[in-house]
Design goal:
Layout lengths: L1 H29 L4 H29 L2 H16 L8 H30 L6 H23 L7 H16 L17 H5 L2 H15 L2 H13 L4 H29 L1 H21 L4 H9 L1 H19 L5 H31 L1 H22 L7
Length: about 375
């Protein structure tokens, strides 16, 4: 029963992500926003991850009430998102997205920590639970792709609001983990952060997700410029997430056999290849289809390894803030920087420049893993 309660949250949360990431930029374009404005609005969704997870992580670690925080944040996220129906002015939408994402971005890092606490010594089961998030993403992105082929993009906010309400309903079904309130008399967090391997890993987090900025913000518009239909674009997104499910299923075997460092290095190497293919062969459906399967490495493999490493390096009372730091520096600071810079690059140098920047970021991550990430837990 607990398996399905935990899995259900990931299902609905990533279904909302599957509706938001591929299609929100198309919705914003339908409101006649420029590429630069779209980049700025999309960056807001990620920029609040710099602050929100750390604020909520600090509260969770001091109270031990992670699920209460998740339930409250989920409800307030749904309520605040409803503000998009009031006006489509740029500054109003920016304000709504700031408030909405401050609460929405609070939920996942704390739920990750709660899931790990529920699993205890059975952390290898994480991938089997997390894969339902990938299923939710696929169902949303493929279903909406078909829906938007028949209906106007204006239906998107209604679909999103429904998914945010379902996230809140599911959070009511998940109990607090047995770990409860954790003692705070262990080594200060700053000692953990002073370790060179931790600093290097956080640097990899930033670079890896900065490289995904052009993808999460502009991939749909980029593909549309090459003549791909909304249905095909949705299928390409779905393929990317489908490929990561295979990785999640194999992680219990891959991690003990190859070790975390080798898998992380493989992930960032294949990420670099992915962005180079996207930059130079976007007009070739066969190659772009192959590049989408590399999402198995650029996100699936990378994320599964990083969740394991963060949980291993940030122990006890630091678990919530460890997951929050991972979310803040990768999906927050990295994602926001990547999205913001991408908008300016597209406007100034053309869309191909975005993915060359992405490849450069992931290549830097390769060198950081090679020379900075040492002496880490392998499995």
């Amino acid at each position: 029963m607990m398996y399905w309660r935990l899995s259900g949250f990931y299902l609905f949360y990533f279904a909302s992500l599957g509706a938001l990431l591929p299609y929100w930029s198309i919705y914003l374009k339908s409101l006649d926003f420029s590429i630069t404005e779209i980049g700025q609005l999309m960056a807001i969704l990620m920029a609040t991850k710099i602050v929100a997870p750390n604020v909520w992580g600090w509260i969770a670690d001091h109270t031990g009430q992670r699920m209460s925080i998740i339930r409250t944040a989920s409800l307030l996220a749904a309520v605040s998102f409803a503000g998009v129906f009031a006006s489509d002015a740029f500054w109003w939408l920016a304000l709504v997205l700031v408030v909405f994402s401050f609460f929405w971005n609070a939920t996942l890092p704390q739920f990750e920590a709660n899931t790990m606490s529920h699993l205890g010594d059975e952390m290898h089961r994480y991938s089997g639970i997390r894969l339902w998030g990938s299923v939710g993403f696929i169902l949303a992105v493929a279903g909406l792709g078909a829906l938007l082929g028949q209906h106007a993009i204006s239906v998107l906010p209604y679909v999103l609001l429904g998914l945010f309400v379902l996230i809140w309903f599911n959070s009511l079904c998940v109990p607090e983990s047995a770990a409860g309130h954790l003692p705070l008399d262990q080594a200060p967090l700053r000692r953990v952060l002073q370790r060179p391997v931790v600093l290097s890993l956080l640097g990899v987090c930033f670079l890896a997700q900065a490289s995904h900025g052009p993808y999460y913000t502009f991939f749909s518009l980029y593909m549309a410029d090459f003549g791909y239909s909304t249905t095909v674009i949705g299928q390409l997104w779905a393929l990317g997430v489908l490929s990561e499910i295979g990785v999640f299923l194999l992680m219990p075997k891959l991690l003990p056999r190859f070790g975390a460092r080798r898998l992380l290095l493989l992930a960032v190497v294949l990420t670099t290849l992915r962005w180079l293919l996207t930059a130079f062969y976007a007009d070739n459906l066969a190659i772009i289809t192959f590049s989408q399967t590399l999402h198995a490495a650029s996100f699936g493999l990378y994320h599964a390894v990083m969740i394991f490493l963060i949980h291993s390096l940030f122990t006890g009372a630091h678990q919530g803030r460890g997951q929050a730091l991972y979310s803040s520096l990768s999906f927050g600071a990295g994602g926001a920087a990547g999205s913001l810079v991408s908008g300016y690059l597209w406007t100034g140098l053309g869309p191909q420049a975005m993915y060359l920047m992405a490849a450069a970021c992931s290549l830097c991550a390769v060198f950081l893993v090679l020379f900075g990430v040492r002496d880490i837990p392998d499995s």
